[in-house]
Amino acid sequence: MNVAKIHVRYLATESKGNPVLLIHGLGGSIESWINNIEIISSHGFQVIALDLPGFGLSDKPQMTYNIKYYFKFISKFIKQLGRGSHSLSIIGSSLGGHIAAEFAINYPSEVSKLILISPAGALPFSFKGTPVLRDYINIVKAKTVKQVRDTLLRIDKNVKPIEFNYANMLFERLSLPGAREAYMSALEGSAHAPRINDRLNKIKAKSLLIWGKDDQMIPVSFLYPFIKMKNCRIILLENCGHTLYRDNSTLFNKIVIDFLKE
User: Fold this and answer.
1) Cα–chain-centroid distance for residue 226?
2) What's the CA gap between 180 and 185, in Å, rounded?
3) Helix, strand or coil, per DSSP, at residue 132
4) Which of 42, 87, 141, 247 is deepest in the core (most CB within 10 A)?
5) How far apart are CA 208 and CA 102, in angstroms?
């Protein structure tokens, strides 16, 4: 589908229920949600996932990929799908959580429920990244699939063994023209974007924040701005890291489905 002259790859399940939009994190794609899409959809929701511009198999034009661009793009994407309504729920992870939060802040009447997973966007400007995050950033320099796989395994001490196929896919995607440049641009765009801390009260959607206690990418200590957020439930998952939606998908899916059904 073409949105604002960008060819975007997306998936929408056949269910005719209320829409649930999934927004992946830095370096992610539709495949990031491989353990979640069908399960959530089977409970009567139409799950929609996309490769953000600059990632996956969506177009990667040379441009500045900042947070403002992304949340405005999501608005156009939803409207073009004809799913823009108060019944929309959004789930965003990490960079995707930053985008989802900004969308909910700027289009408060468009979001019914908001689920943020270890979101960026509320980090102090003094935050220069944990060693694991810096390691993940350097994945763009990987020369082989093995280097990608080794990097993924270092992200989270609780992560299950990374399948070779996933590492191979990520390596191939990062090797596409414009992919590495888009990756770094999106990272810089999030790092230098206005912080959401003082604007969380503008979010009207019923919200859920999920964070892994063992997150080595964005430590759980950065959840504090959300404690004062109205109508926001916070769940900390023990023995879980940054990609808990993939690594502990059974528990994650149950929490999400129960919240969406409330």
Assistant:
1) 17
2) 9
3) helix
4) 247
5) 15
Question: What is the residue whose two structure tokens read 């919200």?
Answer: 207
Strands 2-3 and 6-7: antiparallel
User: Torsions phi, psi of 234, nearest 5?
Assistant: -120, 130
> What is d(CA 99, CA 25) in angstroms, rounded to the nearest whole number?
9
- pLDDT band with cut points at 50, 70 and 90 for residue 167: confident
Lookup result for tokens 């001490």: 157
Other Cβ atoms less than 10 A from the Cβ of 198: the count is 10
Residue 226, amino acid: F
Residue 234 pLDDT greater than 90, yes or no:
yes
**Which helix or strand (DSSP H or E) is residue 190 part of?**
helix 179-191
**pTM confidence score:** 0.95
Burial class from Cβ neighbours inside 10 Å (0-12, 13-18, 19+) for residue 92 reads buried
SS (H, E, C) 1-40: CEECCEECCEEECCCCCCEEEEECCCCCCHHHHCCCHHHH
Sheet bearing 113-117, strands edge to edge: 10-12, 46-50, 19-23, 89-93, 113-117, 206-212, 232-237
Residues 95 and 190 sit within 8 Å (Cβ to Cβ): yes
Helix or strand (DSSP H, E) at 212:
strand 206-212
34-50: per-residue pLDDT in tens? 999 999 999 999 999 99
* pLDDT digit string, tens, across residues 50-108: 999 999 999 999 999 999 999 999 999 999 998 766 689 999 999 999 999 999 999 99
